[in-house]
Write a structure and sequence with these properties.
Radius of gyration: 29 Å
Oligomer: single chain
Order of helices and strands: HHHHHHHH
Structural class: mainly alpha
Shape: elongated
Strand content: under 5%
Length: 230
Amino acid sequence: MFQHLIKKFEAKRAVWAEETQQRIMAYAEQERLEALRRMKKEEEQQCLLNNEVEKYLRTVHPTFLLKPEVQKALLNMLQARSEGTVSVNISMTKEMRKAYSYYHSEFKIFVQLLEHKGYKVSNNEELFLNTFITKLREKNYQLCMEKYGDFVPDNATIYEAFEHYFEIVEDQFKYESGNVDFFAIYLNQKGIAGDDWTKSRLKRKLKHYEKANKDEVRMKRLEKRLENIS
C-alpha cells in the first residue's frame, strides 16, 4: 500500500515537473517573441528617425547646435515639452538665444511632424537629440570637406595645422561652431590631435595661437586673398 502511494506520488511529481517545464518554455518563448517585437519596433523607429532627420537637414544647417551647452539647453527644452513644463535659462548667450528662438520657431514643429509620422519623442529625447546631432555633424563635416578640402599634410604638427586652418577658413567664420567642430574631427582623423582635444580646448588653443602669431596670421590671410588677383 505504502509503495503504491509512493509510486503514485512520483508519477504526480513527474507530471508536475513536466507541466512546470512546459510553462517555463512557454514563458521563455513568449519573452523571446516580445523581445523580437520590441527590437523590430525600435529598429523601425530608428529608421524613421534617421530618414526624417536626414531629409530635414537637407533644408537647414543649424551648426550653432553643435555647441555642447546649446545641446544641453535643447535637451532641457525637449524634456520640458514632454513633461508639460517650461525650460528657463537665466544666463543666455548669443548662441543660446539663437537656439531658443530656433527651437520655438522651427525645431518643435519638426518634432511634431515626427510624432505625426509615428516617432515617439517623449521619453526618447536623448536618443532623438543624439541622432539629430550625429547626423548634423556628419553633414557639416561633409560640407566643410567639400569646401576646404584636405588642407593639412599628414605629417603636420598641431601648430602647422593651425596655420593652414587660419589660411583657408574665412576670418569671420574661424570660430564658428560648425568649422570648429569640423576641424576637431578632421585633426582627430588625421592623427594630429587625440580624443582629449575637445572643441572647447581646440578653440582656446586656436585663439592662443592666433594671438601669439597675430601679424603672421594676418599676412598669410592677406597673401591668400591676393593670390587670384592679377
